[in-house]
Amino acid sequence: xxxxxxxxxxxxxxxxxxxxxxxxxxxxxxxxxxxxxxxxxxxxxxxxxxxxxxxxxxxxxxxxxxxxxxxxxxxxxxxxxxxxxxxxxxxxxxxxxxxxxxxxxxxxxxxxxxxxxxxxxxxxxxxxxxxxxxxxxxxxxxxxxxxxxxxxxxxxxxxxx
Amino acid sequence: xxxxxxxxxxxxxxxxxxxxxxxxxxxxxxxxxxxxxxxxxxxxxxxxxxxxxxxxxxxxxxxxxxxxxxxxxxxxxxxxxxxxxxxxxxxxxxxxxxxxxxxxxxxxxxxxxxxxxxxxxxxxxxxxxxxxxxxxxxxxxxxxxxxxxxxxxxxxxxxxxxxxxxxxxxxxxxxxxxxxxxxxxxxxxxxxxxxxxxxxxxxxxxxxxxxxxxxxxxxxxxxxxxxxxxxxxxxxxxxxxxxxxxxxxxxxxxxxxxxxxxxxxxxxxxxxxxxxxxxxxxxxxxxxxxxxxxxxxxxxxxxxxxxxxxxxxxxxxxxxxxxxxxxxxxxxxxxxxxxxxxxxxxxxxxxxxxxxxxxxxxxxxxxxxxxxxxxxxxxxxxxxxxxxxxxxxxxxxxxxxxxxxxxxxxxxxxxxxxxxxxxxxxxxxxxxxxxxxxxxxxxxxxxxxxxxxxxxxxxxxxxxxxxxxxxxxxxxxxxxxxxxxxxxxxxxxxxxxxxxxxxxxxxxxxxxxxxxxxxxxxxxxxxxxxxxxxxxxxxxxxxxxxxxxxxxxxxxxxxxxxxxxxxxxxxxxxxxxxxxxxxxxxxxxxxxxxxxxxxxxxxxxxxxxxxxxxxxxxxxxxxxxxxxxxxxxxxxxxxxxxxxxxxxxxxxxxxxxxxxxxxxxxxxxxxxxxxxxxxxxxxxxxxxxxxxxxxxxxxxxxxxxxxxxxxxxxxxxxxxxxxxxxxxxxxxxxxxxxxxxxxxxxx
Lengths: 161, 747
What we know:
The complex is a heterodimer.
Chain A lengths: L1 E5 L2 E5 L7 H8 L18 E4 L2 E4 L12 E3 L11 H8 L9 H14 L5 H8 L9 H14 L12
Helix pairs in contact in A: 2-5
Chain B lengths: L2 E3 L3 H9 L4 E5 L4 H7 L11 E5 L4 E5 L8 H13 L6 E5 L16 H28 L6 E4 L2 E4 L5 E3 H9 L29 H6 L14 E7 L6 E6 L9 E7 L13 E6 L2 H9 L2 E5 L8 H9 L7 E6 L2 H6 L3 E9 L11 E7 L2 E6 L4 H12 L6 E5 L13 H13 L3 E4 L2 H6 L7 E9 L5 E9 L16 H4 L12 E7 L15 H18 L4 H9 L28 H15 L9 E10 L2 E12 L2 E12 L6 H20 L5 E2 L2 E2 L17 E6 L17 H11 L18
Parallel strand pairs in B: 1-5, 4-5, 9-19, 17-18, 21-22, 25-28
Antiparallel strand pairs in B: 2-3, 3-4, 6-7, 7-8, 9-12, 10-13, 11-12, 14-22, 15-20, 16-17, 16-19, 20-21, 23-24, 24-25, 26-27
């Protein structure tokens, strides 16, 4: 029996310790917003947060997620009103939408740790998320639009970013 | 914003069955219109549904599959506009597989052109009946009542009634004759031609979407299938003893069979059934299977392509001949020859193929991310031995498709397993499954040759192609390409050259060949645009000017008199003549966009290409930067003439997407077979373009009054040739065999 804290809720889960968090979340808890794309941490569709840090849940055994605050796309905001979610809509980012949960989670983690990323920093943070439909230019514009209006945020070590 | 509706068929019938609470509008589609839009299919009278509830909520049925091209938004936009509906009161209902809706096969970039008029009629009919209802309520002339944003207004008195209040009365009127309908002038469009946000936006950004892979049914179990690595091979025997020991694994059984031609039959394999996806995948790793790999076990695709590159193919069949090519070559001052190769490719949809099926009491229900719901129903019915009437297909959102999900083998797998196992089954393909057991884009080897006269003019062009045919899926001995394949820019190259010949070398298929976003246009545009660029440089001419000149004077390109029936994607030729003026117009638009010939730094260069496909015309200019052994794509300008459009933002996004898709295949794309099996397996060895290597993209949508042309596919073909042409401009090597990463280490 494992206790997982997902989106602020404690879940009791019976799972093999090696079962990837992705499949615990999707199959055992029926939170299907986090997607499967490759199973090898290569495409980013499965990105979730552990204490705000982005991880590829397809390659994270569930035993390693115990004790962390896990956030999935469903928990990114209360009412779909995270600034990035609003920017995604304002910039008409998605096409098929399948990769976008992972894109948003990676982007949210980036902005939480670096409120004014350069183009190169955005590229680096987002290079792990594949979009087959080709929405990269709009993802970048959406991220930059949020960064432009963000106020100062402390970096991980408490210093300015 | 329009909301998603997850009504299933039972709920919908309940809703529409209560005829006293609303207007359910059906439209009959003119069977002749259907017949020419879908040659070969039986003419049927079709019905599309608009439901108006007494609370004013409008439900519009989306009968085409949504894979990111925006069709769940664009077709309903048309209805809502002619209906004068308030878009915020519109809900979309995805249609199940049902011939009543007409052609649901979402393939070939023709949703808008095939259904634009019908959707207008739907909206205009509803609006007229609402005006009739208001006129009857007020005892006034219908002519004095106008519609505006979900309300009917009596002009003289200013009285108003909302659509909800009028719904019941409107339902009592007969459907108006479409010939009497009045349509809005384009100047009055509120939604058509506007960048309406996609209806699924809220769901996508909150993870509330339901793709095929997300469907959950009560009592459902999961299946992961080990399929024969070689096409046409079968299971000799298997040992499941270790697999069954994996916690969560319930059962292991045969599924599919080795069938040739393959059509949409599930491949031969062994399925592991488990309580969750991961357990099924883990169980599968423990299977011990002995395969009879079959006749295709020696397939080496690189060797086969090399065979054709060396000119060792069998005698070719002539497809088209203008003038006298042989004499032109005899008297030529100079000749130039080049061979171009494009390898097999795989769709790599982000959502791998996945489907759920339930089989109970001689009925089968399927939930799947399919582009062709009716074909899915028929394939599933055939697989499980039921009449089609006993099979229901629910269409989910598609996490990318590009043609892969037109082939419903994965839905048949789910149905077969559901029947065998006696529980709902979800089949989820892994990434490796998708890459190794796909329906592959056909490789092609194309030999081009030109004869130049003493003035340096091109007097003759010959082209010969060796490529396996999609028809190999359906008929044995399909070693020659079909007209729909060579008509995609090979047997109908649009050049103003007095002597042209096109030939096809027979090529045997050793795997499942399938159509992938823009299909053979990829191969043909790569060869023709590369060759024309080579000829330009030989003549020391500017590439763009040379293209314009070799395309020649404004005229309609037809090839019937030259032996090849003029091909126009199933559309009426008189509606969609292939106009060289539009091809040149696209080139000139992209020239203006990128400032050709633009100043560049050292090791930088621009390349140009243009191609007409799916009744649209697209030109691309690409800028690259070369460093020692590396290529970086800095900028891509793309201009499309697709005639009239419905949603400009979706057209722009399709062009952006086509650039990324086209660059992926040009820079990285290769599926190679060795000993019958695919050598690639995941995104480490079948890479796709990522954000950090993506260029700046500039899109031009050319304003046009021409009828609606395709949008989803036409952007792809010119990308690869413009890229290789740019590399030459930047001082790099002339790449004639894709992908670029075979020639440059860092791309």
